[in-house]
Amino acid sequence: MSATPRYDVLGIGNAIVDVIARADDDFLLAHGMRKGTMALIDEGRAQAIYDAMGPAVEMSGGSAANTVVGVAGFGARAAFIGKLKADSLGRAFSHDIRAAGVTFATLPESDGPSTGRCYVLVTPDGERTMNTYLGAAQDLHPRDVNEEMIASSAVTYLEGYLWDPKHAKEAFLKAAKIAHGSGRRVALSLSDAFCVDRWRDEFLELMRSRTVDLIFANEAELHSLYQTSDFDGAIAALRADIAAAVVTRSEKGCLVVGPEGIEAVPAFPVERVIDTTGAGDLFAAGFLSGLARDLDDRTCGRLGALAAAEVIQHLGARPEVSLRQLARENGLAD
Amino acid sequence: MSATPRYDVLGIGNAIVDVIARADDDFLLAHGMRKGTMALIDEGRAQAIYDAMGPAVEMSGGSAANTVVGVAGFGARAAFIGKLKADSLGRAFSHDIRAAGVTFATLPESDGPSTGRCYVLVTPDGERTMNTYLGAAQDLHPRDVNEEMIASSAVTYLEGYLWDPKHAKEAFLKAAKIAHGSGRRVALSLSDAFCVDRWRDEFLELMRSRTVDLIFANEAELHSLYQTSDFDGAIAALRADIAAAVVTRSEKGCLVVGPEGIEAVPAFPVERVIDTTGAGDLFAAGFLSGLARDLDDRTCGRLGALAAAEVIQHLGARPEVSLRQLARENGLAD
Questions:
Q1: Chain A residue with minimal CA distance to B88?
Q2: pTM (two decimals)
Q3: Which of A21, A53, A99 sits opposite B55 (nearest CB)?
Q4: Contacts of B96 in chain A (CB under 8 A)
Q5: Are strands A16-22 and A116-122 parallel, antiparallel or unpaired?
Q6: How far apart are CA A296 and CA B64, in angstroms?
Q7: Rounded to a whole number, what is the distance in Å from the CA of B57 to chain A's nearest CA?
Q8: Residues B308-320: pLDDT tens digits?
Q9: pLDDT value at position A259?
Q10: Tens digits of per-residue pLDDT, A11-29?
Q11: Contact, A106 vs A10, CB < 8 A?
């Protein structure tokens, strides 16, 4: 039997600072962006987009990083591994994640590319379109995976985006091996439909080989994974490939897919969607914080829905209120 | 007679990036901060405050800079003079003010202190408490005052905070002299009650010597200026000292004080105050954009109140919507 874990959730992901601006649909068209998706860009394109975009707000982001900040917001114990440069954006990222109560100790690079940035364009409908310059996140390496931290985390949570930087997938696989060797669980977010398109076969292999125990996907990612527009067919394929999965469906709520069956969990009503950035990340935060307390599938799904509803009602991918308090107000925590 | 001005409003101020976090009243007490005011801090204290404060958002700020961004948002022509360092915060400030439509050409410093920062703590009541590390803003110098730009601006708008850096007051006086020599107007914001306390005699001298034609003050600044708690008495003293002034009174609206009398203008109702940062700056923006269109005192005051109401309903001191559109929706613009 494993020792009591020190962390409920340890996230591994690209350490990114979001540079957020409002834009209209014409801006996306003029700059060849596909609405609602994440595109990888180089430094030259990053500069061109920044020069063209409107006044911006800088806010720490990164998918798995947002998730562990949410986990800490629910009062669970969270840690993060991700690569920064020792520059001013890197210092802001470190400050923000630690100030949110997350343990973060990955050494920043002193040389090489600057801290990763994501240019987030938010359209009037609240949808976000992301352009990521990975920068220093490119340099996440297996040696950054702290064995002792992984071994003492109940869940190691990995973002699919880690398949993009060169060595990060090795870090990912090393972490999964340590976690399982210590009797812990491994979860994966599929991140983005185009990310799935880039790494479909490898993601399926991670699931079929039981390298991951639980996946988080939205509908677009699920359709991309199985290259089908047939939702029910994709769900059936998913059940054959992995023991546990959560499929998020925006305002339609989510499906918690497990060995005993499928539970449909409703979303929380939202008055006005301001910015969908971080919706999936915060859903995962709520769900995982429920898992950490051994709650049932439905309650985990409701906690996910609650955190997602909070984050889409304001700009930025980090919660603005205490999620723990919000859960209490909604009868989902003591 | 003067040539048609190229700019409606040119602002001169400390170029500052705001680092904004939520905090409770206990945090302010524990760190010896006086709620609702601006304190000047050195680099060591800046680091200590940053280490202690919660997750933050970085957003361009600076009092006069916020005002000219608002002026541009109303569709008027705006320019700015202020000192940055050529570092990443400096690049963000330059990007944001230009992307907002403001002409900004002051050369950044390549050496010396980093770009100025203001640590803004927002308490649950929406009040903001500011701690400013001036950094590169210390180095604003009379040579940065572009004579041709001042001469072709209908109003040169100066923030009282300029009295804090070493050479900025000389820059201020040079600009005022050029403006008057070109038949233009000079406006001054009193900035902060403690700033008035530091520079009371000089501010009064600026008014009495007709170096400034119009001042903006809130109640606390007015009381500090005349060292009295008698509001009516302070207004009478103000009328004796300057031809035109606007006194803002939060939810009680404002008084436009002119040679012909005093006009009381109501505020716009606000559902919930999120963050008062920039309220005074944006009030001045609305008022000055009205002046640029030769509107009457009442309409200028209403435009000020409208912009202030917008900015206090979200985090940060820059407007999130088109002020021009907002003015149209409220019958204050065509």
A1: A88
A2: 0.94
A3: A99
A4: 55-56
A5: parallel
A6: 54
A7: 5
A8: 999 999 999 999 9
A9: 84
A10: 999 999 999 999 999 999 9
A11: no
